[in-house]
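Bug report

Summary: structure tokens for Oligopeptide transporter differ between web form and batch submission.
Environment: batch mode, default settings.
Steps: 1) Submit the sequence below via batch. 2) Compare with the web form result.

Sequence submitted:
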Amino acid sequence: MTEPLRVPAEVTLPELTFRGVLLGALITVIFTASNVFLGLKVGLTFSSAIPAAVISMSVLRMFKDANILENNMVQTQASAAGTLSSIIFILPALVMMGHWQGFPFWQTLGICAAGGMLGVMFTIPLRHVMVVQSELPYPEGVAAAEILRVGSAERAQDDTQASAKPAATGMGDIVAGGIAAAVVSFAASGLRVLGDSVSGWFALGGAVFRLPMGFSLALLGAGYLIGIVAGLAMLTGLVISWGIAVPILTAMGDMPAGMSLAKYATQLWSSQVRFIGAGVIGVGAIWTLATLFVPMARGVKASFSALTKAGAARAGSAPRTERDLSAGWISVVTLVLVAILVITFQVFLAGAPLSAGAIWKLVAYAVLFAFVFGFLVAAACGYMAGLVGSSTSPISGVGIVAIVLVSVLMLGVGGELMAVQNGVQMAIALAIFSTSAVVAVASISNDNLQDLKTGWLVGATPWRQQVALLIGCVVGAAVISPVLELLYNAYGFADAMPREGMDPAQTLSAPQATLMLAIARGIFTHQLNWTMILIGMVVGVGLIVVDEILKRTCKVARIPVLAVGIGIYLPPTVAAPIVAGALLAWLLEGALRRRAAAAGQPYEHYADAANRRGVLIASGLIVGESLVGVLMAAIIGASGTEAPLALVGDGFESTASYLGLAVFVLVAVLFWRRVMKLA
């Protein structure tokens, strides 16, 4: 008997199994560590739903009684934890400002787990309205369901044709990408026989220009996943920063005696031009949220309407595929999570030189803000994820709005705190910590409904999925603190080095956390670089105008303003390989379209297998390099030296750079050939 691709409500199969939870936890550790590393390095995270589904199918295939619903639970748990790593968009700011010297495990666990689990609780009432009844596309959720269906159909075919060779799940593509990236990354960051970047510097008059290129395979994979539109937007940001802004500033200034062109230009970019990027990002975030205001309002309205007596009555007599966690369980879990938040904030403020009453008042304000604003954000992000997808839903924009609102709130109610010694520093820290809770809520809300859409399409039991999401939040939250601690001690963050003498070229830029800290400090101390930020805001408005014109005149060409800002803000050797990955995806799409036309077949059908392989290889590249980055962080931390495994000295740098370029090009060519084999 073959298993149907959507399990009917009257059929009950094992779903939330012990082996599934254990496998989900192991995948969670892998993708959370990978996303934390990638997010700190480049300010991007990747959706782990599809690779998690592929890994789950490959492993559970060894068990004869495994089924599509069990696979769905594994990918649900793993994708939730991977998404929770978006907390790194804000939490490292506490280390950057010196409030934390590391990442306290229990505080980090409390804020991540409680915030993420509240995101699950807040979006449960939305499931019926937004997933079952809505026509929202949910791109990642539908794609993950299709992966599970294909895998289930192939499993059923294998069972009926015992002599046939088992159909491929795609695990080989993830492994191939992971091994390639791991080997190259170890040779570069461990053995130091391959360079990680190269830059060409030249001057025209007094203007300094830079042609950068990085050789990170993880960023090549990230660029492939974000696509040509976002890639060209980041290229636009690179041109604005290193083709316009830096040359103008270097031409207007005088280079200090004895300073190299590279150091002079980089210093100006770091202290001036990056704030142009911050202005563009701020405008882009506000514009994105403004354009989605109506859908966000619908999401909030749906959330309130779902809490009516009719909704509760429906849940009581619902078939298996319609049973959410009961209102009683939602209430109990929510109260427990609020209590955890209260304890976490109280511990966070325990060292403040304030009376117990003043501390509890601040705790109440912070928790109330995180709860109320988090609820609104959950509904908004749930709708945005369904509308435009989790990968393009602007979590950074939500964080910017939250940090502004909570900072203004602290200015209004934190007078007693501001009056004590170092009170401003503590107020900034509290604003960042409060925003961390909101970002945790937003990130999980952004992912939750995608997973529930996948479950609905394959016939899963919603309440079991919701339990899997809660488990994923706890496991992911437990991983985040030690991984952050490892990476910080090994590489350091922008403007925050744990030890003297560390190589600034190896630091993790953590762009969103740097920006959030700058905004909070600017609100409390009035010390923002407003000139450059205002220039960036003007540039952002101009880009929005151009984008709207393109929207009306050209269906394909667009300029995502947020991506342009990130291109300005990121180190150029980080942004460049992302652009290369996006270009690779575009060239592959063009080649596949030509072959489809020659074969007389629709592109979507002809290129489906090839495009799936490309996504899995790109995900493997990210995972492989990221895990080696975490491994090297552990080795560096244990040895206490910057390059404990290096085989060559500084004199090999030039040769290593050219070798790194050659290997980068070779991997891109092999990537192309492996994808095109399926065409």
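Above is the batch result. After comparison, the two runs are identical; trailing whitespace caused the diff. Residues 172-291+523-646+653-676 form one domain. The chain has two domains: 18-161+298-491, 172-291+523-646+653-676.
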